[in-house]
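Weekly structure sync, notes
Attendees: PL (lead), two postdocs, one rotation student
Agenda item 3: pending single-chain targets
PL asked that the sequence for the first pending target be pasted directly into the notes so everyone works from the same version. It is reproduced below exactly as submitted, 74 residues in total.
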Amino acid sequence: MAFEDLECDPHGEIKATYTALNLPGFTEFEPKLCNYPDSIKDYKKNCFEPLSEDKRTLVAQRWKRCFTEWGYEI
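Predicted structure, written out during the meeting:
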């Protein structure tokens, strides 16, 4: 599950995960899941300055295998 997908459709993504993993209990969990967005309505994402080109290069080098394996742009 990509974070972007979870962020856009938390209910659908979590339900799909329960289904894909054949996990029991989604029906019991669903009311809590539906109420959760109200509990975090004032949450604001962290906002960071973009990495310098040197740091981006270093991260790309050290994490290349993971980025490639999981389909992230370097």
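Discussion points:
- The radius of gyration is 17 Å.
- The chain has a mean pLDDT of 93.
Action: rotation student to compare against the earlier draft before next sync.
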